Amino acid sequence: MLKKRLVGVVIIKNGWAVQSFGYDRYLPLGKPECVIENLDRWGVDEILVLCIDRSASSLGPNFKLLKNIARLGLNTPLIFGGGINSVKNGIDAIQLGADRICIDSMLQDHLEEAEELTKHLGAQALIGVLPLSISDNDLKHLDHRQKLNSKISNEHLNEIAHVVSEILIIDWMHEGEKEGFDARLITDFPMNHVPLIAFGGISEHEQMHSLLALNNVSAVAVGNSLNYKEHSVQKLKDNLMHTSLRQSDYESKHTLLNDV
Amino acid sequence: MGNHASVLHCLRDLGYRVRVSDARDDLSEVDVLILPGVGAFPKAMEELHNRSLVEYLQEQAYLKKPIIGICLGMQLLADMSYEHGVTSGLGLIPGEVVAVSEHKWHIGWNTLECIKGSSVFTSSDKKAFYFNHSFMYGGGAEYQMCVSNNNEIIPSVIRKDNVVGLQFHPEKSQGPGQELLNNLILELCDA
Questions:
Q1: Residues in chain A with pLDDT < 70?
Q2: ipTM
Q3: CATH of domain B4-190
Q4: Would you give the distance in Å from CA A151 to the centre of its chain?
Q5: Which sequence spans correspond to the domains of chain B?
Q6: Domain boundaries defined on chain A
Q7: What is the distance in angstroms between the Cα of B79 and the nearest Cα belonging to chain A?
Q8: Is B169 noted as a catalytic residue in this protein?
């Protein structure tokens, strides 16, 4: 059977990998390539590289970074997002080395463009990004470009679900908080047939266990906490051995280590 | 249309010399042709027609040149697909490409089950590989070497003579993917 996935997230701001807290505070981690190489070595199921400053600044996708990542020769599937706002952008991203792409502002501004992109790439290559929160028992969507938090209609969610294969739900309010993710963003999501990737404030294996047990969760995405210690992915996967996550294959390429 | 970079790096890591090309002269000099693919069937066939590669690939298959199709590249090997309407494929392995029915997609890591006894794929039996597709091969069982299960049977490796289709991405399936791809290329080149 299909396994659920642990996605390693690398947030990029101004070309640097950063830790992000609540969409408004950032701490530098270093060169993106180094962080991405670690995730590839550690055996995450997918790597998500999200350039958070590209749409707001109308800069378009950071293809220079994507080319550098492609040169690493990753053995792990790569999802790339940030600034993709046209069919050409999306196709270019795939041809430069992304296996799948995230789209955010295109879903809000030019849904017809996203539909056209689906015809070129297939919906399986597209992930919709929704930064969400819950207030007054309503699901609110954050337009991070204008810092506007507004109610999102079921009709619009339905339209989005038709052009993407999965939706990345970001708990932006609790991003960077230990065990901060608000599970109601999943349980209250109105369409239970859409596979969801949960992200933002997910750090502990017990919390991941609960989220992965939900039928509509296809993956949990983890950012900051993976960088706090070496082999964090292996440790998480060991603790989640009895869930439907894939157990990673850790075979050292270094003979000295193999002999220990 | 495809993610050439990933396949290129994977093969180079395995020690192979690799060319990315759509020129017949280049393609005719290699030992194995690999058709990677990310995207939708009609657009990919259109690109192959635009590059006059459809007849070329059919000729090469007839001449028993090893050909490996990956993901969409595997689907292109079939006779036709129902993705966004009906489109003719390369017709190198008999069968149609139909929508994944149980769920709309098959995205993530799934295990292979080898169903044809001993083969080059036997060492990959029960190992997990990365899939990312919404259509699948719907042809005869005689061409299916391995399958995967996701509440429905999904053909994951198909083969006719020296033409092989891999529905998953070996280049993105970490150690098991590299091992399978290496074994397959070695076997095809020895055949």
A1: 249-260
A2: 0.88
A3: 3.40.50.880
A4: 22
A5: 4-190
A6: 5-245
A7: 19
A8: yes
pLDDT in tens, B103-149: 688 999 999 999 988 789 999 999 999 999 999 999 999 999 999 99
d(CA B57, CA A34): 40
Active site residue B133: no
Instruction: Give the pLDDT score at A255.
Output: 56
Q: Which of A5, A125, A166 sits opposite B38 (nearest CB)?
A: A125
| Closest CA of chain B from A149, distance in Å | 31
Report pLDDT digits (tens) over B66-117: 999 999 999 999 999 999 899 999 999 999 999 998 668 899 999 999 998 8
Closest-approach residue (CA) in chain B for A44: B174
Pick the CATH number of A5-245 from 1.10.1660.10, 3.20.20.70, 3.40.640.10, 3.40.50.2000: 3.20.20.70
Interface test with B, best of A65, A66, A79, A99 (most B CBs within 10 A): A99
Q: What is the C-alpha to C-alpha distance for residues B84 and A117, in angstroms, rounded to an integer?
A: 13
Catalytic-role residue among B10, B106, B133, B171? B171
Are A77 and B130 an interchain contact pair (Cβ–Cβ within 8 Å)? yes
**Distance from A126 to chain B by nearest Cα, in Å?**
10
3-state secondary structure chain A: CCCEEEEEEEEEECCEEEEEECCCEEEEEECHHHHHHHHHHHCCCEEEEEECCCCCCCCCCCHHHHHHHHHCCCCCCEEEECCCCCHHHHHHHHHHCCCEEEECHHHHHCHHHHHHHHHHHCHHHEEEEEEEEEECCEEEEEECCCCEEEECCHHHHHHHHHHCCEEEEEECCCCCCCCCCCCHHHHCCCCCCCCEEEECCCCCHHHHHHHHCCCCEEEEEECHHHHCCCCHHHHHHHHCCCCCECCCCCCCCCHHHHHC
